[in-house]
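Appendix B. Chain record.
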Amino acid sequence: MSPLVAKVGGSLWRSPLLSRWIAALAAWPGPSCIVPGGGPFADAVRAAQGPMRFSERAAHEMALIAMEQYGIALCDLFGGLALAATPREAAALRAQGRTPVWRPRAMALEAALPACWDVTSDSLAAWYARESGAPKSGSGDLLAPAPDAKPRSKDETNGALTPISRAEARVHAAPHLSCNTLTVAASDTAAAGRPRRR
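Structure tokens predicted for this chain:
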């Protein structure tokens, strides 16, 4: 089965659906890795950049750390999750029966990705999927539950992802990406206005 890279949006941090999404992703029957968004931690970076006037490069690194903070919180809240800095670490965790949560700072900085707000956690998830060896696929092969999808219980779905209302959750996979990705966020509003960094 092709690897799944699942981006869990920071907008889910106070959603009652967060635990259900984590349970469904942890029950995914094949290899997977969760990429955390930045949530309130990235929001703090955005809010501070203007008044403090720190550079885009500093904001980029701080936003990567914000993603790691959200990942640490997820690992603390949900048993079976563990942090992984590289695809190799993620594979080792999967071999132990754990679900890896990517901490992006080291890999992203080493790769010298552009230091700007246009490098979002969605694009980082796609980049990580490619770096981790997820095979190229056409849009028909992308894991893309319906836009009104949420997980049911593991018992109901045997690890599959199934539909709920668009008002409760937004799921999208970009067909132009060349790897298997899934993004889960709290609402469609995060896509409006200024690009969301993480």
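Further analysis of this model is presented in Appendix C.
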